[in-house]
Design brief:
EC 1.14.19.9, Flavin_halogenase, nucleotide binding, alpha/beta, six-stranded mixed sheet, flavoprotein, Tryptophan halogenase
Length: 558
């Protein structure tokens, strides 16, 4: 699953009390950024809630702001002792490598302490059509970009024109990654530098262990940590947060509050009233069942990709960690019931699921257009939720933390920054919704109402419908995308679009592509190099075990 934070809130429903500022805040004379008057500098950021959202934000802010500002700015995190983190296995996006590097976390330590493995992409089974006994259709979304060895040659048009040969998927023709991943090879070698590899990659990891690692690292970076349960949120006379009251530590004040309280959205929603905008008319799934599944043996191969398998009312994820798999079924309660969903999940897993408990989660796709309101900004599930199909949850946390750190108004004037932040994050959510919907609406499955409803044009956002119409006569181009609000590069859209066998007809424009022979030679080169790349890279499990052992040795020496 994505998100990496609490799915069951550890906070009581806050009692927002207007015009009752905490005495400490009043004495400090805190003036909030939405006022037009001159603003004093920020001194303290309080993050309410832990998990991946809280601790990743805390780490990034502590490391970035203390280096960049050269001034006294404290970061404090308060969380309840009732952790309640879902630990079924977490998928990430390649941006996580830059974030982990930025906060100064050693890669081998991360792999060992978070029970992490490498992720080279996502394999999609039965998404185009239901299994019919004649073979299964699947396609791959690799994280590596199409070959750019021939820098002035865009391969996709030539693939559409047949230069790669018949029956060769675009992802297999333009990259070596599927060939490598299918052979249980890792994307990097043991001698490669931290967060660097021969192929692009992200990770799978245990969410609870990752949060605990971030907490330890954050405290080392100087994040102040309090264990306390927030009972109330008090507002000042202007409707901003004056303080949060905790059961154990009393009133806590700050200049900026970061809401990482999960689905409860205790500050941004419960106290400040920022409205949630549902996307359930576009993305129908709203429940998940998850089971932790052991491997058949301790040396079983670990797939270096998420396996997403489509079913009658949703899809299953299968994530390989070091000692177990995290498997779950994401489904629409409008198209099936919980008992049937559990049947589907257990049937998919097989006998290894016998006797294992399934945990249910409930959610709704959507986001808050006002994620930064007055002196409070939401990060993670309190800001919005996207189903974990493309592992966007932690990527959205990363982006929010990045924007807070680099847009933060050190003079305290938050009005314009909040507006800019909300524009960027809202647009990013909308584009992710479009990208996820594309996986569903291009399906040719007709075996259930779930798939028929997803193909209904009324459920497809206007922007996506317009793009799909344009892409019938030309492939996606970088000009179709605005970089600062896109999580996915054009190549990702291309891999999904043509993995789902979208019909783009370039024959009328054949004359515009004069380098057919060069492209054919490049496809042949990729095909010939793929086995050599696989032979040059280590076994996936062997690399993971090597990194764990290396970190253990380093820890023992230290």
């Amino acid at each position: 699953m994505t998100g990496g934070e609490r799915f069951a809130s550890t906070f009581r429903v806050p009692k927002a009390r207007a015009a009752l500022p905490c005495s400490a805040a009043k004495m400090m004379g805190i003036r909030l950024g939405y006022l037009e008057a001159a603003m004093p500098a920020l001194h303290k950021i309080l993050i309410v809630g832990g998990g991946t959202a809280g601790w990743l934000t805390a780490n990034y802010l502590a490391r970035t702001l203390q280096i960049a500002s050269g001034r006294s700015l404290s970061v404090e995190l308060v969380e309840s002792s009732d952790i309640g983190i879902l630990g079924v296995g977490e998928g990430t996006f390649p941006s996580i490598r830059g974030t982990l590097s930025a906060i100064g976390l050693d890669e081998a330590r991360f792999v060992r302490e978070a029970n992490a493995t490498f992720k080279q992409g996502i394999r999609f089974d039965h998404w185009l059509k239901a299994p019919d006994g004649t073979g299964s259709h699947h396609y791959f979304h690799p994280f590596s970009l199409p070959s750019q060895r021939e820098r002035d040659l865009e391969l996709l048009p030539y693939w559409l024109l047949g230069a790669a040969g018949d029956g060769v998927a675009f992802a297999e023709a333009a990259t070596m990654q599927k060939h490598v991943a299918d052979r249980s090879r890792a994307p990097k070698r043991a001698t490669d530098a931290d967060y660097q590899g021969r192929l692009n990659y992200a990770y799978h990891f245990d969410a609870a262990r990752f949060a605990a690692l971030l907490a330890r690292h954050g405290r080392d970076l100087g994040v102040q940590h309090r264990i306390a349960t927030v009972d109330e949120v008090e507002l000042d006379e202007h409707g901003a947060i004056a303080c949060v009251r905790t059961r154990e530590a009393g009133a806590l004040t700050a200049d900026l509050y970061v809401d990482c309280t999960g689905f409860r959205a205790a500050l941004i929603g419960g106290a400040l009233g920022s409205k949630f905008r549902s996307a359930k008319d576009v993305l129908f799934v709203d429940r998940a069942l998850a089971i932790q599944v052991p491997y058949a043996s301790a040396d079983a191969p670990i797939p270096s990709y998420t396996i997403s398998t489509a079913h009658e009312a949703g899809w299953t994820w299968d994530i390989g960690l070091q000692a177990r798999r995290g498997v779950g079924y994401v489904y629409s309660s409008a198209h099936t019931d919980d008992a049937r969903a559990e049947q589907v999940l257990r049937s998919h897993i097989g006998a290894t699921a016998d006797g294992l408990a399934a945990r249910q989660l409930r959610f709704e796709a959507g986001h808050r257009p006002e994620q930064w309101l007055r002196n409070c900004v939401a990060v993670g599930l309190s800001a919005g939720f996207v189903e974990p199909l493309e592992s966007t949850g932690i990527g959205l946390i990363e982006m929010a933390a990045y924007l807070i750190a680099h847009l933060l108004p050190l003079d305290g004037d938050m009005t314009r920054v909040a507006r800019h932040f909300n524009t960027l994050m809202t647009r990013r959510y909308e584009r992710i919704f479009d990208f996820i919907k594309m996986h569903y609406c291009l399906s040719r499955r007709t075996d259930s109402a779930f798939w028929a409803d997803n193909a209904d044009p009324r459920s497809i956002p206007d922007a996506l419908r317009d793009q799909l119409a344009m892409w019938r006569s030309r492939p996606p181009h970088r000009l179709d995308f605005v970089t600062d609000v896109e999580m996915f590069l054009p190549a990702s859209w291309q891999f999904i679009l043509y993995g789902m066998e979208y019909p783009t007809d370039l024959q009328p424009a054949y004359a515009l592509y004069p380098h057919y022979e060069r492209a054919r030679a490049e496809f042949a080169m990729i095909r010939s190099l793929a086995p050599r790349a696989a032979a040059d890279l280590p076994d996936h499990r062997a690399l993971v075990e090597h990194l764990c052992a290396r970190d253990m040795t380093g820890a023992a020496v230290a």
